[in-house]
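sanity check this:
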Amino acid sequence: MSVVSNASPLINLARIGQLDLLVQLYGELVVPEAVWREVVLKGTEQPGAKEIETAPWVQVRLVTNRELVRALRQELDAGETEAIALALEIRAEFLLMDALGQLRLRAAAVGDGCAPRQRRYRGGRKQLGSPPGPRSESA
């Protein structure tokens, strides 16, 4: 199974001491060079930097589709763009990212109506985009 990861899942799991979940779930992880630089080189003193640097289950790969990286770079950071490009290149089964919030913000800023909607439940009533409850018989 091939799994590519962006930096945020690695950093966030390291912060809560659960980085080993990745090796337990997937056995091996592939990260692009931009993610390696962000986590290990730039994040030297951050949680997970040493663990990722020495982990035998993490492979660093070079992204070859630079045109795709340039196109994606207009909207995303270096780690995100390389993670997406690498996942496509190696036909990864999974891509680990936390970009949902960023995608919501970007879609809302563009105003294209593509922002994912989140449903929340309070007191048995659906809110945020859900249809109204049943009509009252007294109407």
Summary: DSSP finds seven helices and six strands in the chain. Residues 3-98 form one domain. The helical segments are 7-15, 20-26, 33-41, 49-54, 66-72, 78-89, 100-110.
